[in-house]
Amino acid sequence: MTLLPDNRWVRAVIPALLLHISIGTVYCWSVFKQLIADELKVSPGTIEWGFSLAIFFLGMSAAFLGPMVERDIKKSALISTICFVVGFAGTGVSIAMHFVPGVFIFYGAVMGVGLGIGYLTPVKNLMLWFSSNKGMATGIAVAGFGLAKAIASPVMEFLIESFGLVNMFYILSVVYAIMMLGGFLLIKRPQGYVYEKPSSATNRRALLKKPLFWGIWIAFYLNITCGLALISQEKDILKDLLHQLPQYAGMSASEFSLAITGIIGTVLAVDAVFNAVGRLGFATLSDHMKRRESSYKIIFIMSIAVCALQLVTNSIGNALLWAVLAMLFLINAGYGGGFSTLPVLLDQHFGIKAVSTTHGLTLSAWAIAGLSGNQLASFVVSHASDQAHRYAAVIPVITVLYAVALLSIWLVSRVNVPHKVVAQS
């Protein structure tokens, strides 16, 4: 007999948030990456592989371990907790020992596996508990993942300043262990749920042969690639833009940097809010549409529109400033919305029995985009013909990629789906 209520908030929502708010702190990498590089006496570019590997192992572990999550969420929640906490604490140990490969092993590989399993674990459970509002439910959990950076970044900065970089990793390892173990203890399938082995039509090998699966995969991959390409250059795009404004003309480099620090910090904080709202909003919106693809169509059309607005706004000043801010905020919202809408889109086409497997396999796109998005932006910036506005050169490229993503999801929407898994309007 348990003293805890056996309802969807206690058994699905709370554990989902405990898990996702913990593992979502992977996006706090920018808070301490320079400090790690300085401590280990290597270049920031070298240490950046720690984050890239974490995202790669996230996607790959989700792709390969989805069936395990399908069978036993208690086991997957525990494995995720162990891998994530050991990886986070091991990163601190590696820094203390000045062992550079340790950062790649622990933050990249070990923690990355914990990320992938932990990301998948609560998703199907939420869809089972909230069968009539699946989009909203998955949006809640994935919004927690998106908000983690906004919550943890100031905490990390405080701990680093007060106790040092290495101790920050140790302290938060204990905090995350408590949070994730809480999620492990609370998470539970709805009463009466019985695991059914997915059909042969939805195993990994069969899925990889379906054009429908690849249509979804491509759209999801391009949304992440475009989002990362823009987000990775966000600070520099803003610096280029603000440098053109009359009020900053004639300032020295140090004066300019000091003057815009608060502005850029505010923009990045608002970005995090739009990302989280997009995760919850677009997934919830899909609950009220006949087809889940409609949310993706809105995301891609919106992204193309705000990129085009920035491209056609030739005036220097407030018009361009607002166009760029609209682009950054709304693309961040669409980037987050793409993640939260994915599980219910897969449910629509392949059914809920295999949703952890199909979701995990599709997250391989995240692994590849995590490597290609930043590299795409760096390549475009370094080869831009106008070096004075080289960061703006990324915008036309991602506009074209968003158009390809829109075409891909439009083709997916042309496929008929069983009535029983179509979202109810």
UniProtKB/TrEMBL annotation:
GO terms for cellular component: plasma membrane. It is found in: Cell membrane. InterPro entries: MFS, MFS_dom, MFS_trans_sf, Proton-linked_MCT. Keywords: Membrane, Transmembrane, Transmembrane helix. Pfam families: MFS_1. PROSITE patterns: MFS (PS50850). CDD domains: MFS_OFA_like. Residues 1-417 form the Major facilitator superfamily (MFS) profile domain. Its main location: membrane. The keyword Membrane applies. The chain crosses the membrane at residues 12-32, 47-65, 77-97, 103-123, 135-156, 168-187, 212-231, 251-274, 295-313, 319-338, 350-371, 391-412. It is a multi-pass membrane protein. GO terms for molecular function: transmembrane transporter activity. This is OFA family MFS transporter. The lineage of its organism: Bacteria, Bacillati, Actinomycetota, Actinomycetes, Bifidobacteriales.
